[in-house]
Amino acid sequence: LPALSYRDDALHMEQVSVDELAKQYGTPCYVYSKQAILDVYQAYTDSFTSLDHQVCYAVKANSNLAVLGMLAQAGAGFDIVSRGELVRVLAAGGAASRVVFSGVGKTYGDIEYALTQGIGCFNVESISELTLINEVAAALNKRAPISLRVNPNVDAKTHPYISTGLKDNKFGITHEDALAVYQQAADLSHIDIVGIDCHIGSQLTEVAPFVAALDKVIELIHSLRDHGIELRHIDLGGGLGVRYIDETPVSIDEFAEALLPKLSELGLTVFFEPGRSIVANAGVLLTQVDVLKPTEHKNFAIVDAAMNDLIRPALYQAEMAVIPSTLPSDGIDTNGTKPWDIVGAICETGDFLAKDRLLSLEAGAVLAVTGAGAYGFTMSSNYNSRPRASEVMVSGNNHQLIRKRETVEALYADEILWQDK
Ligand code: LLP
């Protein structure tokens, strides 16, 4: 992992020991590396430098203002799926004109807000959304820039919950209907057709599904041209996978190499919407072992993070690595090593972070769940009235709190006791 290393047996994020961070900020705590985030962003722009392109970071992966702010400063655009995410992007200094708005359920209010702010493009997922956007744009006396999100019906070969490009998914407009819907869009008075979009799923490790989707989209671009509809950009969505344990995802370079020849012939600006690949391995979740509970069948290590902090293992059976903040001094301490289930304190059997991990543990030890920079904090909740974790950014030997740990009082601050009348 780029920003993580052991130095004298102590785990460091960039130049800072995670034990020190755990001591100063408490646990559970998300820690991110600024350099790691910006390096991946840069790798995308470097790989596609021969083309006019725009990386629109998928805000849902990690929407902390500090993360958005540093990406905005580096020149990134953003892919959003709610009004809330747009408000965040603007608060972090991002430009609305570099934002694409995805998602199947945009409301009148969402569209009105986005148009007023000067959104770059709506990725339209249905005919009714298209007509609604036209209606809102007419009311505001504006023309709304749109792409259609087409569903190329390719199998992304990923977990079914995060696969989005198949016929029976709720996303996008089928390849067969796309031309007709574009023609409908061309007839709408307040719609400006600017692009075409597809996103087939997340945590893809192979390049073939991306190429298959691109081929389908290119086919459409040609038939649109034949019908007098010219586009300015093609948006290939996100989805590039990362290594959590032993996956071997295609690199950004290989990804670019496979797509570039086909893309350069098009003469269009290329958009990408990567989320996970930019932030996942830039982040860890630090958690402390509270209780060790070895039993006859299983050894449980109960830690202070739980499924409310990191739901990926419970929701997708996702496997994420768990590593100690301090290595046993003789390297791997085989004597004290046992298989442990790393579990939270929530009253659910599904509350686990990892199963059967060979570790040498004692109460008070700090562990790091790696790959936690994406879909970690953003998917966290307050189940069991657990305040959400703090977040910290590291850069070189500097570190800074970028989100305070929530207080219990804040959790019920908006609740109102019932008054008998
Ligand atoms: N664009 C669209 C339209 C999307 O729906 C997504 C993710 C992305 C871009 C970014 O995809 P990425 O580059 O991050 O793969 N919570 C799940 C992942 C859900 C992804 C949803 N859409 C997880 O933790 O694995």
Architecture overview:
- The chain is of the alpha/beta class.
- It folds into two domains: 4-31 and 280-412, Lyase, Ornithine Decarboxylase, Chain A, domain 1 (Beta Barrel); 103-272, TIM Barrel.
- Helices cover 29% and strands 25% of the residues.
- It contains twelve helices and 21 strands.
- The protein has helices spanning 18-25, 34-47, 65-74, 83-91, 108-117, 127-140, 175-186, 208-226, 252-264, 276-279, 312-316, 408-412, and strands at residues 4-7, 10-13, 16-17, 29-33, 53-58, 77-80, 99-101, 121-124, 144-151, 173-174, 191-197, 233-235, 269-272, 283-294, 299-303, 322-324, 338-343, 352-359, 366-370, 390-395, 398-403.
- Strands 4, 14, 15, 16, 17, 18, 19, 20 and 21 form a nine-stranded mixed sheet that branches.
- The chain is globular and about 70 Å long.
- The chain binds ligand LLP.
- Substrate binds at residues 276, 312, 316, 348, 375.
- GO terms for molecular function: diaminopimelate decarboxylase activity; pyridoxal phosphate binding.
- It catalyses: meso-2,6-diaminopimelate + H(+) = L-lysine + CO2.
- The modification N6-(pyridoxal phosphate)lysine is found at residue 60.
Unreliable residue runs:
none
The end-to-end span amounts to 60 Å
Rg over CA atoms, rounded to whole Å, is 23 Å
Into how many domains do the coordinates divide? Answer: 2
The portion of residues assigned to helices is: 25-40%
The assigned CATH architecture of the largest domain is Alpha-Beta Barrel
- The CATH homologous superfamily of the largest domain corresponds to Alanine racemase
Main beta sheet strand tally, sense and closure: 9 strands, mixed
**Count of β-strands:** 21
Tally of helical segments:
12
Are any ligands bound, and if so which?
A: ligand LLP
What does the average pLDDT come to?
A: 95
Strand-residue proportion: 25-35%
Q: What name does CATH use for the topology of the largest domain?
A: TIM Barrel
Shape field: globular
CATH class of the largest domain: Alpha Beta
Secondary-structure-derived class: alpha/beta
Binding site for pyridoxal 5'-phosphate: 239, 273-276, 375
Domain Orn/DAP/Arg decarboxylase 2 N-terminal: 40-280
Function: Specifically catalyzes the decarboxylation of meso-diaminopimelate (meso-DAP) to L-lysine.
GO molecular function: diaminopimelate decarboxylase activity; pyridoxal phosphate binding
